Amino acid sequence: MMDRRSFLGRSLAATGGTLLACREMGQADSASSQPVPGTISEAEIANAKFPEGFLWGMATASYQVEGAWNEDGKGESIWDRWTHTVGKIRGAGTGDVACDHYHLYPQDIAILKRLDQKSYRFSISWARIQPTGRGAVNHKGIDHYKRVMDALLEAGIRPFCTLYHWDLPQGLEDLGGWPNRDLAGYYADYAGILAKHLGDQIQVWAPFNMPWTFTNLGYGTGVFPPGRASYTDFLKAAHTVNLAQGEAFRSIKAASSKATVGSAYGMSPAYPATDREADKSAAARYNAMNNLYFLETAMHGKYPNAFVGGVPYEAMGFRAGDDKIMQVPLDWIGFHYYSRRFVSASAASAHGGGSLATETQDTGAAGNDLTQFTSVMPTQGPITDGGLEIWPRGIYDLVMQISRAYNNPIIEITESGCGYLDTPYDRDGGRVPDTRRIEFFRSELAELARAIADGARVRSFHAWSALDNFEWNDGYTQRYGLTYVDYRDQKRTVKDSGMWYGRVAAANRLVI
After folding, report:
1. Which domains does the chain show, CATH number per domain?
2. Sheet holding 204-208, edge to edge
3. Of 31, 93, 163, 418, which is least packed with CB atoms within 10 Å of its CB?
């Protein structure tokens, strides 16, 4: 998961975005009879349609679910080091065991099959394949993922592989981490190893999960591992990742003729806080920095206009020819949607802290002098237990913006979900009656169906998450799963939302 994060860009910044923002920001209606902003009607939900063959799926990430942190030759990752450091994680949680998916994956895949899922987005632990991030292959790690792929294919589920979901081998961090551009080459080697050994089983690959999030929070603000707070380090890390994205694309394609390569970016639709030109420009910069920073480089080989005064090429370590390395023809575009942002112009540096959750961390404390915007998550809509505003309309705006800006590409919704703390209820036979999660998905999926009806080529939706799991700095204090996990004995209980989502997948339409 996540940094539950255009969308201004070329169209929204012009007219509609401003009008939408002014209408939504409230200058809110005072009449109590008005519906909650952002909600949609039962008729729209009932009429929502999805194309034949639409891929209903769920998502997880290696560090968040696998456990087995030091088994079968796996090396230490930066998240292993971080969680084993006192004071970093709420409740002192670690991913040492997590959901024990490493051992219990047959049970979890059986749940996916039972719920009629056709796509499973997961990630592979780099340190399980190359314990230090370089050198010899750990074949026990390869063999494990081969077994997982066999089980998925036997269940009729498409394996959707994210190569990197934030768990960098600690050995590579010891060499300087992502600000060291040598990592682009090491990462390309890793991508080629996976494609060589797993390419017959996996055809859908996304190099990185939410690259803006792990580069900014890990190196720009320091709230994620490795805990470095330097805007220059962020710029260098992000540039290395852009180089690595391009090199990995070519490595995968060279090793597997069946491969399609796309993305799994975190995005938040951005709306100007007012109709002032300064706020419109700030929202466009937010969109360029937080949403397009890794997409524009792949599609066009250049950085988007995210900075006041131009792209700081020297600070990021840009070299002649890097544009050609970064540019690759992605086969499809994937992104997450969790929340929207209101954006305003700001010229002053902001050196603030932030919550532990990824969803509310996006402006970046340092570096405000270069980007000169401030973003906030609105609170007009209902708020989840995880602290996010529910705004279904945002997924429509985001999908349509990407469709217009990039010539109507194939789109995969790689993550979306909500955190609620509902637990099994003994008086109801041990069920987990998480009705709020059902309502969240019903409304959001109706908006996604509207985007499809308006011409967007969306072919999948992956609910976050298949399981309750380790939620990064928040530890085990949030539950995003459609299946409840009792961490004391690893018992799985499919929530009411999971049962409902299974019926939706079976019917290929929204159901009661």
Report:
1. 9-25+39-507 (3.20.20.80)
2. 260-261, 204-208, 158-164, 119-123, 55-59, 457-464, 410-416, 333-337, 265-267
3. 31
**3-class SS of residue 184:** helix
Helices 182-198 and 139-154, packing angle to 10 deg? 50
Residue pointed to by tokens 């890793």: 190
User: Dihedral, CA atoms, 414, 465, 111, 89, nearest 10 degrees?
Assistant: 140
Please give the average per-residue pLDDT across 445-465, as a whole number. Answer: 98
Q: Is 481 helix (H, G, I), strand (E, B) or coil?
A: coil
Return the residue matching tokens 């992104």: 335
Q: What is the pLDDT of residues 114-155, one digit of tens each?
A: 999 999 999 999 999 999 999 999 999 999 999 999 999 999
Partner residues linked to 119 by β-bridges: 57, 158
* pLDDT for 258: 95
CB 98 within 8 A of CB 136: no
Three-state DSSP class for 320? Answer: coil
The 3-state DSSP class for residue 79 equals helix
Q: How far apart are CA 82 and CA 62, in angstroms?
A: 16
Cβ-based neighbour number of residue 348 at 10 Å = 9
Is the separation of the CB atoms in 332 and 409 below 8 Å? yes
Residue with tokens 């800006």: 405
Enter the tokens of residue 203: 């055809």
Burial of 345 by CB count in 10 Å (0-12 exposed, 13-18 middle, 19+ buried)? buried
Q: How many helices (H) and strands (E) does the chain have?
A: 20, 14
* Tens-place pLDDT, residues 496-511: 999 999 999 999 999 9
Q: Are 89 and 185 in contact (CB under 8 A)?
A: no
What number of other Cβ atoms are within 10 A of residue 352's Cβ? 11
Above 70 in pLDDT, residue 242? yes
Q: How far apart are the C-alpha atoms of 321 and 475, rounded to whole Å? A: 42
Binned at pLDDT 50, 70 and 90, residue 38 comes out as: low
For 363-391, the DSSP string reads S-STTHHHH-EEEE---SS-B-TTSPBP-
End-to-end CA distance of the chain: 27
